[in-house]
From TrEMBL:
Domain SRR1-like: 72-233
Pfam families found in the cross-reference section: SRR1 (PF07985)
Phylogenetic lineage: Eukaryota, Metazoa, Chordata, Craniata, Vertebrata
Start and end residues of each stretch annotated as Disordered: 1-29
UniProt xrefs under PANTHER family: SRR1-LIKE PROTEIN (PTHR28626)
Name of the protein described by the UniProt record: SRR1L protein
Family stated for the protein in its record: Belongs to the SRR1 family.
């Protein structure tokens, strides 16, 4: 009963807060359950050359093959643009592939940093439960490798993210320690007019001749999930063969019309990734 003056006991508010936390925990558990189911489905094995392979470990093995061409094997991983994996099957398949890939490469989940401004609070909690690390801020792809061999997992990301990443690590020494899994650079070159590529995505344009690229093997079940996806690496010898002028311009990219969510955009405010740190 309300006392004179209109105040009410705080117990009702505490119960509502407790119910809210319980509902969030239930939703997070449901996200993990759907992910486990998706991963279980993808772990159905089939024979291949006398071996038993998972459907997704076939492209995972294809990622390992090019690693002999980089300066050192990846010791860490950065994942951008995973999407709403709680409600999108394609995003769940991409996350399942990422987890299998970390196992294949021997990278502990705690050395894999993840960011997408679209993550819900429940999805962020699920990623933490899986042992992954949430980046607190929107880096716009500008993540430095800090001298360590790094795998960047960026399936179906915007072109500006790839361009920003290259700019941030624009030296032969840094690029030679990177592997990028994402949209085919060759495909980007084929689809864009050369003047637009050189104007808006100049670092992609300049690195093309120093890039090795291998498309992920196609699987009929994942045509939409991994279409136009390639493994990219940058052999040191090929980078050294580029003209010195290629390395002279290190101006930070700017974009008039940008297909990525920028730091400070409304979609990022209140990011669950930041809240989960």
């Amino acid at each position: 009963m309300a006392a004179e003056g209109g105040w009410r006991p705080a117990g009702g508010r505490r119960r509502r807060q407790r119910r809210g936390r319980e509902e969030e925990e239930e939703e997070s558990d449901a996200v993990l359950r759907r992910l486990r189911e998706a991963r279980k489905n993808e772990l159905l094995t089939f024979p291949c050359a006398g071996r038993s392979l998972t459907r997704l470990s076939v492209p995972a093995g294809a990622v390992r093959a090019p690693l002999g061409g980089i300066a050192e094997p990846p010791a860490r991983c950065v994942c951008y643009g995973l999407g709403r994996f709680s409600c999108c099957p394609a995003a769940r398949h991409q996350l399942a592939f990422l987890l299998l890939l970390l196992e294949e490469l021997g990278v502990p989940p705690g050395r894999c940093s993840v960011f997408d401004p679209a993550f819900s609070t429940q999805e962020a909690a699920a990623l933490v439960e899986l042992g992954l690390r949430l980046l607190p801020d929107n880096e716009e792809g500008k993540h430095g490798i800090e001298g360590s061999g790094t795998l960047f997992y960026m399936v179906h990301c915007g072109k500006a993210l790839y361009n920003n990443l290259l700019w941030r690590n624009w030296s032969a020494g840094a690029l030679s320690k990177m592997v990028i899994i994402g949209n085919s650079f060759k495909g980007i070159e084929e689809r864009l007019l050369s003047r637009i590529l050189e104007r808006d995505y100049s670092y992609i344009a300049k690195v093309l001749k120093g890039t090795e690229e291998a498309a992920l093997p196609a699987h009929p079940q994942y045509l939409d999930t991994f279409n136009d996806t390639s493994v990219h690496w940058f052999p040191l010898q090929k980078l050294k063969e580029l003209s010195p002028e290629v390395w002279d311009c290190v101006e930070e990219p700017t974009y008039q019309d940008c297909e990525i969510i920028r730091k400070g955009d409304g979609a990022e405010q209140g990011s669950p990734a930041a809240a989960a740190e």
